Structures are given as C-alpha cells and as structure tokens.
Amino acid sequence: MYGIFMESLVIFKLYTGLKPLLLLTLLMWLFLLVMEKNKTVRIVLVYAPFLVAALFLFPVSRKAFVAAGLDGETYYRVLWTIPMGVIYCYGACRLFVGHRRIGLVAACVLVIVCGSFVYQSQYISRAENLYHIPDTVVKICDRIGSGDPQVRVSAVMPTELIHFVRQYDPSINMPYGREMLVERWEYYNAVYEAMEKPEVVNMEELLSATRQEHCKYLVMGQEKQTDTDPEESGLLLIDEIDGYRIYEDPEVE
User: Fold this and answer.
1) How far apart are the C-alpha atoms of 66 and 238, rounded to whole Å?
2) CB-CB contact of 78 with 14 (8 Å)
3) Contacts 24+ apart (CB under 8 A), 157-160
4) Of 122, 132, 217, 220, which is the most exposed, with the fewest CB atoms less than 10 Å away?
C-alpha cells in the first residue's frame, strides 16, 4: 500500500508541478475554508477538492480504479475534477471584495508573476485560424477533401498532422491515428509500419499496405526518403503544400 501511495504522490507532484500557482490556490482554499459562509460554495470549492485529493492519494482508491477496468496510466485524470483556477479566482474576488479595482490588479499580477508564458511550451502555439489547427492541415484537407460530408476519402498523413485532420474534416479517413504514437499501447498497423518505421520507405511495401486500406492519397514530407520515386511507382504528384507532397493513387477508387 505504501508503494501505491508514493506512486500517487509522485503523480500528484508531476501534475501540479508544485509551482507558485499551486501555492496561490492553496492559500485561497485556506481563506475560503475560514471565511466562506455559503454552504454550496463550501461544498464545491472547499470540501470536494479536499476529498478528491485525499481519495486520489488513498491507495485503495487506485486499486479500485484499476479493478473497475480503467487504465491505471490515466489515473491522474481524477485530478482534473479539482477546479484549481476557480478556487483561486473566486477566493481572490472574495478576498478583495472591498477593494475590487486594486484586488483585480493584484490578483492578475500574482498570476502573471507566479505563472509562465504559455507559448514557451512546445505543446502550445499561436492560433493560425479560427479552427485552432495549423494552416497547413487546412490547405491539405481542402485539396484532397471531397467537399461533401457524405463522400469519404482515405489518406495517409505524417504523424505530426494526424491529430488535426479529423478535427477539420471528418470525411477524411486515415488508416491510423494517434494510437500509433503511444508505444505502450503496442498497436500494429501495416501502413504505419511501412510509412513511419524505416528511414527509407520501401514504396512497394507501402503501396501494398495503402491499397489494402483503400488509401486514395498519400501525404509525405519533403524530407521523407523513399527507395524509388513515388511517381515511378505509379503515384501522381498532384500538389505541394508547405513542404508536403500530395500524391494520388490512380489504382484506388
């Protein structure tokens, strides 16, 4: 049990980062614990977060989570139910209720000073369009999409694009998705094996796999190396968009 507790504690530390923003939330939680009189607010922002955190760290809870058939690797998602941002914002509003303007400035300054610039993260980039996906994906999807949600097309995409394609155009099918990027899931897909695993793509093996999956289009980065020219293998180069070559396979209906 102690080992399970320590694992949960490590997950909690990794999730929160134990950074100043967590400290701010904790301070506001303590403030609400002492000062908040509204019973509903106390239940939602004081008692419930404490109960969730306590149950998360309680070893039996994790054993029950796994016993219920849930993936132990996603146990950290339980912490999503703790409204850290709401606790801080509501607590700050209650704290500075008598001096709203100064309080608003002080609360914002604390968040800015204790936080970090979001665009420093490798996982966050500035939005390029209303869809909040890369413009390149929009251009490629518009190029190969049918324009009719009832008419579906299949396409092979580089791994860096597969997260976004279905968000923009659900009529585009792909033989594999993000599940192939998580090694511990141990998924197998013949197209992925032929397209992404080798440094130099064997076009004969790739086309054998894509034609079995009825892939009409193949999208490749210009840096992708192949043992033979895709056009010599029977593909048609129909466009080049932002460093990606779009091939059409005339043998696939």
Assistant:
1) 49
2) no
3) 157/219, 158/219, 158/220, 158/221, 158/224, 158/244, 159/196
4) 122
Stronger pLDDT, 165 or 3, i.e. the higher one: 165
Tens-place pLDDT, residues 170-203: 899 999 988 888 777 788 999 999 998 889 999 9
Residues 6 or more apart from 35 whose CB is under 8 A from it? 94
**Please, which pLDDT band fits residue 140 given cuts at 50, 70 and 90?**
very high
Q: State the burial class of residue 207 (Cβ atoms within 10 Å of its Cβ: 0-12, 13-18, 19+).
A: buried
Cα separation, 249 vs 244, whole angstroms: 16
- Residue 13, classified by CB atoms within 10 Å of its CB into exposed (0-12), middle (13-18) or buried (19+), is exposed
137 closest CA partner among 114, 112, 166, 117? 166
* Annotated domain spans of the chain: 2-116, 135-248
